[in-house]
Amino acid sequence: MDSGPDRTYHAADGEESAEPGAVPDPERSGATPDADAEATVLLLMDADRDRDLLAEALGERYRIRTGSDPSALDGKFDCCVLDAKAFDAAGDALDSRRERADPAFLPFVLLVSEESRGRPADRAWDRVDDVIELPVARRALLTRVSNLIERRATSLRLRRTVADLRLKERAMDEAPVGITLARATDGDDNPLAYLNEEFEALTGYGEERLGEDCRFLQGPDTAEETTDEIRAGLDEERSVDVDILNYRANGQKFWNRLQIEPLRNEADETTHFVGFQTDITERKIRERRLEVMARVLNHNLRNKMNLISGYADLLRDAPDEESQRRALDVISETASDLTGIATAVQKVDETASAPPLAAPMDLRDELIELRNRIRSSYPDAEIALSIPGDDPIEVTVVGLPAAISEAVENAVKHNDDPSPSVEVRVEQDSEGWVTIGVEDDGPGIPDHETQVLESGETSLTHADRLGIWLIYWVVAKAGGEFDIDTGEDGTTIRLEVPAHP
């Protein structure tokens, strides 16, 4: 008997509509049968009295679809009830349909009548989830089918929960900021339970650090006041928002904007701390540059302009030519100083704001060119290079040649010896770091010029040489170390940077 196209019977209102078989499966679309009325039962069997009775019994609680051809399995349903004939005809299609539903549970029920009893049952349990012998009481039929549909609903809810968790984890993994999740404990350690990909890219540390407290990011120059503030926030289970100097896995420094929030359970107990990390090194350098430039404008330029103005007045009222000449000399010298300050400011700005290098440069070639340029400008100076090996020293540190040049030129210009001596030493290590030492035999750099690098500038305490700041910012931007050692025999400026920050 021709059963016609697949039909859906809505038991509530008697409406009958064509089912094209292209409706998305719940396991693919994410739909979950939260109530019996939303679940669909497929009766896969020829149209006969048994099918009508089943449709009437199950239709009180579920939507009913009917079909006799195995292609009906391609449509939407939450439980399939089929007879022995349909079971034989479906064959591997049952396995295929179940695999497509995986990992969601999709139940199949085999009806065994008196005529077919014993024939398919021997192999049925490999492909179906229940075998019901006919005749069967309506209550028993509903109970057994309902149990299977409830199992399916539970599996779909679980799948949706897992999918939501995976989506949230993916969102955290792909977030543009570093994210960590640490367990709240009674002690001083809060072991990491999770870290995302951006955290690994930012710090160089990955899953090997799970189970450790995040203080492994701290180093020698990390401010104790900042770590104390973080510890206090964790102990008090409150939000923390600080700028902290941290260290990457390769030893490179970076400024980290660290934000920590406590996570609480339904009992308002703090169970975890979520941390957000952002590299703000560029911002910190820019802020310091603005401070220094503001000092240059408010102090140096004002003093120089006051000096010019004062000597201009003196020149206007000068009683003799000698006084006029001295006034003109001071004005000329001060104007030259102003030009030098403007040039230095421009050089600092261009160097500190330069974009990343498109390709590595050979530091060896840069130093040879620097030596030749210094010798040309200062013929009496002795410039020596100590560079290991003959191979290129490839680096991508923005502004490094300008920083070295500044150190060498300052060493020559501020040395009163008729033949100033400067040696540039370069060392490489196996960890990918390059150390450049600039040694001179000059009088040394005044303490106040170097102290401001750590303590900051004020109107009373400031560096007279912007070149010191230029070197400092180049090294800081690369996450390296900058040291100045001044003694009786001269000064050594040491720049230690990662070759490829």
Describe the fold and architecture.
By secondary structure, the protein is α/β, with parallel strands linked by helices. The chain contains 14 helices and 19 strands. It has helices at about 25-30, 50-60, 85-90, 90-100, 120-125, 140-175, 195-205, 225-235, 280-315, 320-350, 365-375, 400-415, 445-455, 465-480, and strands at about 5-10, 15-20, 40-45, 65, 80-85, 110, 130-135, 180-185, 190-195, 240-245, 255-265, 270-280, 360, 380-385, 395, 420-430, 435-440, 480-485, 490-500. The strands form four sheets. The protein has a seven-stranded mixed sheet. Strand 10 (about 240-245) and strand 11 form a beta hairpin.
Task: Give a quick set of tags describing it.
elongated; Heat Shock Protein 90; 501 residues; 7-stranded mixed beta sheet; alpha/beta
Write the layout of secondary structure elements.
Blueprint: E1 7-9, E2 16-18, H1 26-29, E3 40-44, H2 49-58, E4 63-67, E5 79-83, H3 84-90, H4 92-101, E6 108-112, H5 121-124, E7 130-133, H6 138-173, E8 178-183, E9 192-195, H7 197-203, H8 224-235, E10 240-247, E11 253-264, E12 270-279, H9 281-316, H10 321-352, E13 361-362, H11 363-377, E14 382-386, E15 394-395, H12 400-413, E16 421-428, E17 433-440, H13 447-455, H14 466-478, E18 481-487, E19 490-498
Parallel strand pairs: 3-4, 3-5, 5-6, 6-7, 14-16
Antiparallel strand pairs: 1-2, 1-4, 8-9, 8-12, 10-11, 11-12, 13-15, 16-17, 17-19, 18-19
Helix pairs in contact: 9-10, 9-14, 10-14, 11-12, 12-14
